[in-house]
Amino acid sequence: MADLSVAQRAALAQLIAACPDHLLSQLEALAAAMTGDRAWALRDMVEVEGLDRRRRDAAFAPLTPLFRRREDGLDGLSFPASAPARLWKLARRNEPELLPQLDRDDELSRMVADRLCLSAASAVRDQGETLWPGASADQVAELAACFDLAGLARRSLAFLETWLGRPGPEATAELKLALRQAASIAPDGAARLMEIFFAHLADARMMLRLVALATPAAGRETVVGESELAVFVDRVVTALAHRAAEAAAFDPTAPGADAALLKADLDWCAETLSEIDMTLPLRADSAWGKAVRQARVKIGLRLSELFSAAEKAAGKVLPVERTAMAGRMTRPAPRLDEAVDVETAARAKALAAVVGLVRGPATVFGCEAERRQTAEGLTGKLATWADEALERLNDGEAADEGIARKRIALTAELLGLIGAREAQRTVRRRLTVAGAPPSVAVEAATSGASRRRA
Q1: How far lies 292's CA from each of 74, 288, 304, 362, 414, in Å?
Q2: Has residue 173 been placed in a domain?
Q3: What would the pLDDT profile of 254-276 be if each residue is shown by its tens digit?
Q4: Beta strands 330-334 and 320-324: pairing type?
């Protein structure tokens, strides 16, 4: 079979270069399964492209996160995703003999990578408009300045995990030294280096630890607020206010509402508040302090409203009627002949789920005591109603056993949603044997106890 022509190779080279990484690996597997001279040529071209990309990724590794948007949606320094490929061609053009060194992982390979990043910085300054069409002069200058810091960032990122944990004096000194070195490279180099660190952090809240580590403990909030590092605290506090507003506006009874989304927002806000309290205590009268307090209060008030609504909703699915006692005396008893209303039941379940889901974060928002009181009150109310309803069912007082069982099963489900698992199991077990002959009931209860012990 004939080899690829010059035109075919040029077309394939453009196609391969345009393939994203995941498609390139698929193309490589496809070429490996083919036979013939052209297949071998295609395989060689794909392998060469893959090797070139690995070398590019190794050289540009400190800046790679800057070429994609943050998954959490927070603001951050970023550049076009297409820039690295264009920059790499210019950076490696004059010194191709250095590229094989990038296949290793040693000090020499890091020196070569740093040199190539400096070449990329020069290429940005020389051909910025071509590399980044439509970019302003400030944007081009920012991209070049980031490549100036790539070598320092490469060395500093080795300490990132230590800085986020329990850094000792030596690790703290390394961070402050890195920031001083960045400032010596450019007047705003320290803030730019922190932007690179921020891009490497999937959890933006961890940036608060770096900010705190980089500033003195005395008067930390004031120092940070007057420095270039204030932007990172602003981002976290803004995100906190946004997610707190989303949590406060969440209606668990709305069609299609997912209580898990509320739980995710509350967990994130609670963890963020805890992180702020631990790493950067704020003054009550500061702008940040007021924003944080407002977020905490807003969520706390909303949770209180939901707890109250849960009690009312549960009451509507527990119908009662007056039954005669001795003489003219009557007492309220569960009503078993009323069919379960789907919408009312759905509302009760949605609100009960909130009571159970927010057990952890409610403490941070100052309403755990209210949540616990609501859960205990609902547990007593639901369990008592179910107990009396089961007695009436066993006594044959239910006009429609099917309706009665559905109503009692609903109380068991609500008990489970608010976290009363033991009470839920008791109701379900008793409902299973309700109305059965005594011998069958005893046998079922015994087998159920045996399964739990197992």
Answers
A1: 17, 6, 19, 16, 34
A2: no
A3: 998 998 899 999 999 999 999 99
A4: antiparallel
